[in-house]
Design brief:
It is a single chain. Helices cover 20% and strands 12% of the residues. The protein has a 4-stranded mixed β-sheet, covered by helices on one side. The longest helix has 13 residues. The protein is globular, with a radius of gyration of 15 Å.
Length: 134
């Protein structure tokens, strides 16, 4: 995966393909807390691979919500955004069942396209607003 100037990686262009429009995407935090031995009992590489098997996944540097590690953000597709969907932030995603629920939802279309499974309400949180330079 090519790295951007910020050190983040990408999966390439975000355009429609011959197979159809770009599906929802997932961002996984894998920096200082998420994806490290600080969060025990989870195979971080397997979690990322499982999600990547369903939809495009971008691995991010720290998303600044370390108290919620492991953090996964499900971003809506163009169709989902047109329906008014916004990214869904999920925290404390530290068991394989939660990963499976996220993978199934993303495969079904994700935010704005498929209903969010009720069980994911347990993981959903609102990220704090980032401060901007004044």
């Amino acid at each position: 995966m090519p790295a951007t100037p910020t050190g983040r990686t990408t999966d390439g262009p975000r355009t429609a393909t011959a197979a159809g429009p770009v599906p929802c995407r997932i961002v996984v935090c894998r920096d200082c807390c998420c994806g490290t031995p600080k969060v025990t009992g989870i195979d971080h590489a397997a979690q990322t691979a499982r999600l990547r098997a369903q939809v495009p996944v971008r691995v991010s540097a720290c998303l600044d919500v370390c108290d919620q590690a492991n953090v996964i953000v499900v971003q809506p597709s163009a169709k989902g955004r047109a329906a008014g969907a916004r990214p869904v932030w999920l925290g404390l995603v530290n068991d394989p069942d939660a990963t499976e629920d996220i993978a199934a939802w993303a495969r079904a279309g994700g935010p704005g396209v498929a209903p969010q499974p009720d069980i994911l309400d347990l993981y959903t949180f609102r990220p704090p607003r980032r401060r901007t330079a004044s």
